[in-house]
Amino acid sequence: MNQTLIELLDTRVRAALAAVDCPDAPAVIQPAGRPEFGDYQANGVMGAAKARKMNPRQLATEVLAKLDLAGIASKVEIAGPGFINITLAPEYLAGLSNLALTDANMGVPHPPAQRVVVDYSSPNLAKEMHVGHLRSTIIGDALARVLRFMGHEVIAQNHVGDWGTQFGMLTAYLIEAEQAGDVALSDLEDFYRRAKQRFDEDEVFATHARECVVKLQGGDAQVNALWQKFLDVSLHHCEALYAKLGVGLKREDVRGESAYNDDLPVVVADLQAKGLAVESEGAQVVFLDEFKNKDGEAQAYIVQKQGGGYLYATTDLAAVRYRAGTLHADRVLYVVDARQALHFQQMFTLSRKAGYAPAGMSLEHVGFGVMLGEDGKPFKTRSGGTVKLADLLEEAEQRAYALVSEKNQEMPAEERAVIAKAVGIGAVKYADLSKNRNSDYVFSWDSMLSFEGNTAPYLQYAYTRIASVFRRVETFDTRAPIIINDEAERQLALALARFAEALQTVARETMPHFLCAYLYELATQFMRFYEACPVLKSEGSVRDSRLRLCELTARTLKTGLGLLGIETLEQM
RNA sequence: CUGCCCGUAGCUCAACUGGAUAGAGCAACGGCCUUCUAAGCCGUAGGUUAGGGGUUCGAUUCCCUUCGGGCAGACCA
Predict the structure, then answer these.
(1) Distance (Å, rounded) from C-alpha A154 to C-alpha A137?
(2) Residues of chain A with CATH 3.30.1360.70
(3) What are the C-alpha distances in Å from A138 to residues A335, A430, A485?
(4) Of A37, A337, A368, A521, most Cβ neighbours within 10 A?
């Protein structure tokens, strides 16, 4: 299989359109809106008819006469003003399932491979990770996994905040703490708070902190060693959370802001040389007339502060140069808070103008909204503080443990804990990933852990039901073909065949929620099949076929959830 | 003031270059366990897609406008 179902139908319908003298008309294939319209619908005829001032139903009839779907569709008919409704043949769908069972990539075609940089998570290493880092981390991770699965070369980059004045303060405080024999780096948040307090209250300390910034930036060995030590501790903290979350980011993926230090003066000088950056109010500024300020004039984009300091704009420009010049990326995804949308638009525009990003390199801001509490206001603790990511995940596991215990009172505590981890963490991740990332989303323990509807536990449960079947099966033909007799089987096979489409959409739109919606649909179709078609109690080739269908469903669910970074369980 | 995002069932969310009667889940109500895990399945009810105008065979989707919410807009990221 080298194309998805939609691509196949698109090719065939376009060929038919071309045969009736509409060579450039798009087929506009979509999954059918209602069951009675079949499985897919082609909507392109109406547009083509309009362009040629023809009667759409008449044209549809002509297209239908030329449309070759032999062996693919069992029914093709014209409906409404000129829709072509396509119902796929059971034998064809069975064939696709059989193919997917033997294919190493589960029947998912690989598009031309690209080198894709995915910039995600990017916590500030001065502090502990909090809920604000959750979305970038798991959305980015899911996208990286999907792109890799589709055969792309993914370079994950953790653009951590490891530079800036706050690190002067922290190293100064680290010196103090070490002298006092108290290296309390176990709680980063507390360490930061104490350092900040010293900075605000003690002028001598504040001066020392500023000196440390200068020393750090000047390459002073002692301060740099302390800085490295601090980063190491902070990164360990992040990695512990990545491990708990099942996020694949590794130490070698870290390429922090500091990595671009040497290139910052070069960038500014280059922008000046190109006549893009000019001095304004003591700062180096690029005026972009693509963007207007409050007075309707070209908006200023600062690349160097008055006093010579650099900003994130400079760092990001340097990163573009690196990703283009050294990494030769075809595509760069920035999985960053939607509030930075303007910054990215400006930065992308300037990167093009300055020639840092070649025309063939796609720069995409994968923005997302903020997490809200159930009151609709930004997600905070009862006391109004920032919620630590570690605390959130801990609570997820605890809540899941309580629920697992309710359902399995006789189960050993150890097993319950394993299930609780997969379910709790999975629920948190899925609740986030299943929503359109563009909008803010309401974080609700109750709905994500209700285990009903479009949730991770529902999908995990579907998987365990299959696992349970295979625990009970004694013997069957593990190479038996899938044969479709029942409509529930056909619907399940159709859902299975759409896996590739879902992944393709996710990769193209950088929207993980399409994969979630797909998996939910697949699980729902499986549940219906499971209710309607006895597996172990059936006999002969039907039993073998149904077991094979179960097998492919399980693999697809496991693979799909895996691409979201969510574990499956044999039992729950 | 300017720009971006958003407004869909009581609640949380879908709707893939504009397609047919706008779909799910929760909550509500009614069915289904001597049969592979009922964390399930089936059914009922619930809508002027914030309001108004426009484009066309067709608009939740595109354009204009009003209202409401969020965010951003020169030295934080």
Answers:
(1) 15
(2) 5-88
(3) 10, 9, 40
(4) A368
- Which amino acid appears at position A555 of this protein? R
- Among chain A residues 6 through 45, which have CB within 7 angstroms of nucleic chain B? 26-34, 37, 41, 43-44
* Averaged pLDDT of chain A: 93
Q: What single string gives the DSSP state of each residue in A286-333? A: EEEEEEE-TTSSEEEEEEE-TTS-B-HHHHHHHHHHHHHHTS--SEEE
A432-437 mean pLDDT: 94
Say what the pLDDT of residue A164 is: 86
Q: DSSP secondary structure string, A231-299?
A: HHHHHHHHHHHHHHHT----GGGB--GGGGGGGHHHHHHHHHHTT-EEEETTEEEEEEEEEE-TTSSEE
- CATH class of the structural domain A5-88: alpha beta
DSSP string, A492-560: HHHHHHTHHHHHHHHHHHT-THHHHHHHHHHHHHHHHHHHHS-STTS-HHHHHHHHHHHHHHHHHHHHH
Eight-class DSSP state of A372:
E
Q: Confidence band (pLDDT; 50, 70, 90) for A178?
A: confident
A464: Cβ under 7 Å from strand B? yes
**CB-count burial class (<10 Å; 0-12, 13-18, 19+) for A408:** middle
**Burial annotation A462-487 (CB, 10 A radius, 16+ → b, else e):** bbbbbbebeeeeeebeeebebbbeee
A292 in contact with nucleic chain B (CB within 7 A): yes
β-pairing, A362-366 vs A331-335, is parallel
Q: Which residue has the higher pLDDT, A376 or A343?
A: A343
CB A360 within 8 A of CB A391: no
DSSP state of A388: B
Measured CA A375 to C1' B8 distance, in angstroms: 20
pLDDT attached to residue A448 = 82
CA A515, A518, A524, A529 torsion-angle sign? negative
Measured CA to CA, the distance from residue A46 to residue A417 in angstroms comes to: 57
Q: How far apart are CA A264 and CA A254, in angstroms?
A: 19
* pLDDT of the residue at A161: 95
Average pLDDT (A97-126) is 95
